Each structure stands twice: as structure tokens, then as C-alpha cells.
């Protein structure tokens, strides 16, 4: 198997020659693994299965220590999270026997995908951190082919940790990035010009989101002339940082002017780390103040950080809704999507990072996991969402193809087998083959299956929405009113974005219903939504209050007429529970009689409902 490139060593003096040599090694590694993709995949599967020959899960299905693809595909089922839940719960409750993986489960990664309203728990093992680091180490050498000189400046990245919980069995459960930032792979990363960030690690590791954001912005502003690239993980996070700056720039300027840090920043390690960077700089404070107090924030990124060459954020998938805002704030700097990853596994990278967001494709790196692909065809044009079969029949199972056998232009659902104990696991993402790098396919990210609404990392499906709306609408019955039809959309025209529900009612006397009744309905919907949504509302403040817009009677008939005029079949027409198509949103908006917002945040605590938390 092509060996992973060595990242620059600690002692490296970061001289140009070493950087170039390392970049070449990385690019050669990518060439090799993509050229030999099928053989790498065969070896990955064989390695996973031989290591895990003794695990209960594989024995249960009678794999009997076989490590070949044919037997594996014949006997091991293609599964979803719900199928693994009993095994995962045993691990969470303290069973340390080799249930899914022969190596000890080091922690659970809490996915933004949910099951029964709670984050999914993905088991992981210590060595996966190395695999994640490997994928990160590929990004900048690829980027440097297109933009030289990135090793000469700093990256201003807004990175955050989230709270963690402990399972009843004592394993930590936390998001994958929190796990990575807290690991020695990140904290004690070797001296590398490409991971030279403006944010000291203490500011990233601070759990208080206000203190973390404030101190990262302060350090970023103070080092503004060194910054050559800016970013966050997802587009929504980066925009949140800019909006934070809009609110707090005068306080930040005060700190830059005086070389002190505001008293609201109380975390001693953050204060100490920031104070190592900060010195009084009245000239810079004047400059930032002058830029921020101009009426318009158009191009604020290039104005404040003039050497910035690109914004590194994911804008594929639901994040594409933030592209106009990013273009506005940056005067259309390139938006670069570097990688595609999840709690289950890190998948791949973008080998053409300066392409336009609509053309981004990810090359899956064949030694991250064993990949299979389930062909998908069904697509609901009105909602843009794809809902595939839940359990697979034998014929569907036989349709799964290997990495090198996918067909150009075809859509697939991604299925992974990982070193950490997931076997033929359906990730839930729909990908379209857009080309090949040597033998390895490249994919456009199309969507996450079954997601109706998403603002940030929340993913609300139609069933959850339906249940939440039903619970809330029951409150209308006592006023002799009922819900006739509804649909929804994710409104990101203002930041933070929020969920909007269009409700058509049957009501005897609308004057009998006070606004507070609808506000309670908004709140009830929010209380009924999953934990990732509620965390976004309460903790991250990345989602605004949910809104109900009551529409005139007959609106949903008009919606049906519109759909039929666009070619929908009258026999098959069903009201879409989520809409994205602008003319439909315009139609609905033109019929709004009144609108109401949730008056308060729903409840949220870290960890699954039944666990105690340990922040
Ligand atoms: P999580 O497990 O919470 O980290 O979420 C992982 C999911 O985020 C993936 O399965 C995708 O649905 C989505 N995701 C990750 N990277 C990308 C990307 N580059 N473009 C679009 N969606 C992404």
C-alpha cells in the first residue's frame, strides 16, 4: 500500500526546500493511491476484516475470518444506524468485549445526523486520529499547486469545540472536530507553515463560544497583515464570525488600541495566550475602526485582511445557501471547499480547489476506508430531496458497486466499512460521479438523504417535522381551529437563518386566537425537534427563532396548480413538506396573513437525554 507521506517534522526549519519536498511527497502519494485505487481498496478491506476476525458482529453473520470481497458482500448486510443501535448501546453502557471492533473503542463521535431525536453515536478508535491527520496533511500541498506563497502567511480560521458528555459506560461522546482539536495531533502538531494559524490553541479549546469567538477575532485582527487565507469548517460558521465582528468591533478596537483584553474574557488560559500576541497598536485600531464604521460591510474581509487569497469553507450541500453572503463580505474571493468528511470516516479531498462552488468534486482517498456505492435514482424535483429505500432487498444489495466501478454521471448513496467497526454502513449522503483522478472516482456532493430543513449542522427530516407540527397544531383544537396543510423552508436571508412554516388553517373565528397561541405553537415545534436543532438554537445561536406564517385559505390549492403547471402528475401530487424553489416561496409569501415567532429557546442539554453531562 502506498505509504502515507510524513508531515514536516518538529525540527524542520520550514525552509522552502523542505516545504517543496513535502508537497511533492504528498502529491506523489495522491497519484499512487488513486492510480492503484482498486488494489488499495482490496487491501484496506482485507486489513479491516483480518484484524476484526474475532469481533462479535462479523461472527454473527458467519464471516468466519474470510477477508475477501466476495464473501464479505455475500454475508454481511448493508445497514443503517438503527440496525447497529443495540450494539452501539451495549458499548455505550460499558460492554468492552469486541462487539464491532477488535481494538478498544476510545470514544464516541456524536454525529449531526440524529436517531430518535438524539445525535448518532459513532464508535471510534485511537488510530483513526492518525487517518484524519493524514487527510488534513494532503490539503495544503494540493492548494499550493494553485496558489503559491501560502506557506509565507497565516490562516485565520474560526475553529470551535463543543461540550462533551459521558456515556453510562464512561466513554466520552463529542463531535469529531472537538475530538480532533483536543487531540495531540492538533494541539502538538509539528511545526508546519501550513498550520500556522492566527488563533492560539487556547482560544479554540475554550468552551465558552463568546470568549472563543472574541479572542479568535481579536488575534485575527491584530495579525491582519499576515493573514493569507481565512475560513471555518462550514460557511455558516464563518458568516457567524463576521456578524460577531459587526456587533463587537468597537470593543475589539479598544483592546487593539490599548493592548489589553476585555474583562468579559475571563478564561485565564485564553487571556494568557492572547496577551502573548497583543501589543498596543493605536494605528491598527484606527484602521479597523474606520473600516467597520463605514456604512457598508461589502468586501469587509478583503478590507480588513488585505492579503487574503481565498475563503476556506464548505459551501457544498445545504451550505450553498450562504454563497451570496460570502461573496458580499469578500468581494467574491474564491470559495474553497477542501474536503469531505464525517464522524463515521474522513472520505476525500478536492483536487481542484479553485473551481467554482457548483463544480466542486471530491476524490475519495482509497485508504481511508472501504467504499461501496448504492445506485440512486429517485428525486423529488419540488423539494430537491432524495428519499431512498430504508431496508434493502436482495436485488438492491446486488447493485452495490466498488469504488472503481462507479459510472460517470450516476448518483449513488455512499456505504462505508471502516477501521473503527462499521461494516457496509449507509452514510446517507448522495454523491454524483463527476470524473476520475486516475482510477479513483470524483464526486459532486448532491445532498443528504431525507433532509428537509437545514440551517447549520442541523438536519431535520420530514418525519420529525411532521411529528413536531402535529404536536403543535393540536393546540389549536381548543380554539375550534385545525391545520389544513403546511409546508416549510429554511430562510437564510438574514443571519442566523431560521425555519419557516407556512400554515393554512380551517378556523371558525380567527379573532378568538391570540398571537400567543401561535407563538406557543412555534415553541412546541422547536421543543419537538431533534437535539442538534435545539443545540443550534440554545448554545451555538446559529439558528434563529422558528416562524409560523399563516396563509390565506386556498393557498395550497394554488400551490398544487402551480406544481401541475410545472409537469407534476395530478395522481401523484403530494404537498411538499419542504420547499426550496424560489417561485413557490414567492407564491406562498404573497399569501401570508400573519406571522409569529417562537418567543424563547427550547430546552437543550449536552449528551443524550438519559445521560449525565460533564462539561
Ligand atoms: P457529521 O457526521 O456531523 O460530521 O456530518 C457529516 C456530514 O456532513 C456528511 O455526511 C455530509 O452530509 C456533510 N458534509 C461533510 N462534508 C461535506 C462537504 N464537503 N460538502 C457537503 N456536505 C458535507
TrEMBL record:
The keyword RNA-binding does not apply. Residues 362-448 form the GH3 middle domain. Residues 464-580 form the GH3 C-terminal domain. Keywords: Ligase. One of its GO terms (molecular function) is indole-3-acetic acid amido synthetase activity. PANTHER family: GH3 DOMAIN-CONTAINING PROTEIN, INDOLE-3-ACETIC ACID-AMIDO SYNTHETASE GH3.6-LIKE. This is Indole-3-acetic acid-amido synthetase GH3.6. It comes from Gossypium mustelinum.
Amino acid at each position: 500500500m502506498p505509504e502515507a507521506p510524513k508531515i514536516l517534522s518538529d525540527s524542520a526549519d520550514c525552509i522552502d526546500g523542505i516545504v517543496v519536498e513535502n508537497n511533492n511527497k504528498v502529491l506523489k502519494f495522491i497519484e499512487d493511491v488513486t492510480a492503484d485505487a482498486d488494489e488499495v481498496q482490496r487491501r484496506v478491506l482485507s486489513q479491516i476484516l483480518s484484524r476484526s476476525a474475532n469481533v462479535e458482529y462479523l461472527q454473527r453473520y458467519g464471516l468466519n475470518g474470510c477477508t475477501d470481497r466476495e464473501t464479505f458482500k455475500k454475508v454481511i448486510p448493508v445497514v443503517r444506524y438503527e440496525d447497529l443501535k443495540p450494539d452501539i448501546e451495549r458499548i455505550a453502557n460499558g460492554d468492552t468485549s469486541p462487539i464491532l471492533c477488535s481494538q478498544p473503542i476510545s470514544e464516541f463521535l456524536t454525529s449531526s445526523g440524529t436517531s430518535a431525536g438524539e445525535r448518532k453515536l459513532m464508535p471510534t478508535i485511537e488510530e483513526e486520529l492518525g487517518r484524519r491527520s493524514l487527510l488534513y496533511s494532503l490539503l495544503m500541498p494540493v492548494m499550493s499547486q494553485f496558489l503559491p506563497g501560502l506557506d509565507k502567511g497565516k490562516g485565520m480560521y474560526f475553529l470551535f469545540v463543543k461540550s462533551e458528555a459521558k456515556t453510562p459506560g464512561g466513554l466520552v461522546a463529542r463531535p469529531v472536530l472537538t475530538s480532533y482539536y483536543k487531540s495531540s495531533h492538533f494541539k502538538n502538531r509539528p511545526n508546519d507553515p501550513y498550520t500556522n494559524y492566527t488563533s492560539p490553541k487556547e482560544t479554540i479549546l475554550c468552551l465558552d463560544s463568546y470568549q472563543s469567538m472574541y479572542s479568535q477575532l481579536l488575534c485575527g485582527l491584530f495579525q491582519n497583515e499576515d493573514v493569507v487565507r481565512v475560513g471555518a469548517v462550514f460557511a455558516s460558521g464563518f458568516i457567524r464570525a463576521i456578524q460577531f465582528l459587526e456587533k463587537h468591533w468597537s470593543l475589539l478596537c479598544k483592546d487593539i488600541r490599548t493592548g489589553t483584553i476585555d474583562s468579559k474574557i475571563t478564561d485565564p488560559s485564553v487571556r494568557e495566550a492572547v496577551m502573548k500576541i497583543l501589543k498596543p497598536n493605536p494605528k491598527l485600531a484606527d484602521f479597523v475602526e474606520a473600516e467597520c464604521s463605514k456604512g457598508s460591510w461589502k468586501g469587509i474581509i478583503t478590507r480588513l485582511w488585505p492579503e487574503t487569497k481565498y475563503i476556506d469553507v464548505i459551501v457544498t450541500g445545504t451550505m450553498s445557501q450562504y454563497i451570496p453572503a460570502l461573496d458580499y463580505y469578500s468581494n467574491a474571493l474564491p470559495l474553497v471547499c477542501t474536503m469531505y468528511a464525517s464522524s463515521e470516516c474522513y472520505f476525500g479531498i478536492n483536487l481542484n480547489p479553485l473551481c467554482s462552488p457548483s463544480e466542486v468534486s471530491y476524490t475519495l482517498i482509497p485508504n481511508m476506508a472501504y467504499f461501496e456505492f448504492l445506485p440512486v435514482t429517485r428525486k423529488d424535483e419540488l423539494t430537491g430531496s432524495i428519499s431512498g429505500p430504508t431496508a434493502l432487498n436482495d436485488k438492491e444489495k446486488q447493485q452495490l458497486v466498488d469504488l472503481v466501478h462507479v459510472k460517470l454521471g450516476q448518483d449513488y448513496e455512499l456505504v462505508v466499512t471502516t477501521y473503527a467497526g462499521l461494516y457496509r454502513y449507509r452514510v446517507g449522503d448522495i454523491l454524483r460521479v463527476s470524473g476520475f483522478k486516475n482510477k479513483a472516482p470524483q464526486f459532486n456532493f448532491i445532498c443528504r438523504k431525507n433532509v428537509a430543513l437545514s440551517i447549520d449542522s442541523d438536519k431535520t427530516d420530514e418525519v420529525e417535522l411532521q411529528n413536531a407540527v402535529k404536536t403543535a397544531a393540536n393546540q389549536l383544537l381548543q380554539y375550534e381551529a385545525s391545520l389544513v396543510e403546511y409546508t416549510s423552508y429554511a430562510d437564510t436571508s438574514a443571519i442566523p437563518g431560521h425555519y419557516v412554516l407556512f400554515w393554512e388553517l380551517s378556523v371558525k373565528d380567527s379573532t378568538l386566537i391570540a398571537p400567543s397561541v401561535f407563538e406557543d405553537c412555534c415553541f412546541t415545534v422547536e421543543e419537538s425537534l431533534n437535539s442538534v436543532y435545539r443545540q443550534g438554537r440554545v448554545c451555538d445561536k446559529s439558528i434563529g427563532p422558528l416562524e409560523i406564517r399563516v396563509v390565506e385559505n386556498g393557498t395550497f390549492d394554488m400551490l398544487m396548480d402551480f406544481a401541475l403547471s410545472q409537469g407534476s402528475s395530478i395522481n401523484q401530487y403530494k404537498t411538499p413538506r419542504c420547499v426550496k424553489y424560489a417561485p413557490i416561496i414567492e407564491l406562498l409569501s404573497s399569501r401570508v396573513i400573519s406571522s409569529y415567532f417562537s418567543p424563547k429557546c427550547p430546552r437543550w442539554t449536552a449528551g443524550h437525554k438519559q445521560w449525565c453531562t460533564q462539561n
